[in-house]
Specification:
By secondary structure, this protein is α+β, with helices and mostly antiparallel strands. The chain is built from 4 helices and 3 strands, in the order ββααβαα. It has a 3-stranded antiparallel β-sheet, sandwiched between helices.
């Protein structure tokens, strides 16, 4: 997939999870940590990127963000754990 549109989750300093969408996850993390991202994250810095999912279109990424925001905290945590495990397996793969 080469869409360059991402739904993402950040872990805030207070342990909460923030969901958003962007076309550049690393740059977006920098803006959040600079205090110019979302109002929610401004008081909960630093933040770290814990989940990304890439989509072909902006609309798909925005739709996924909408669905992520409606998950319970425990559902989001399960998604983050599965994401981290899959990344670890890819690093350790052949």
């Amino acid at each position: 997939m080469n869409g360059g549109n991402f739904a993402y989750m950040l872990r805030c300093a207070d342990g909460s999870l923030y969901c958003g969408w962007t076309n550049d996850p690393e740059r977006r993390v920098r803006t959040h940590n600079a205090g110019t991202g979302g109002k929610y994250t401004r008081a909960r810095r630093p933040v770290s990127l814990v989940y990304t999912e890439e989509f072909d279109t902006k609309e798909e990424a925005m739709s996924r963000e909408w669905h992520l925001k409606r998950l319970s905290h425990s559902e989001k945590e399960r998604l983050v754990r599965a994401y981290e495990e899959s990344r670890a397996q890819r690093k350790d793969g052949p």
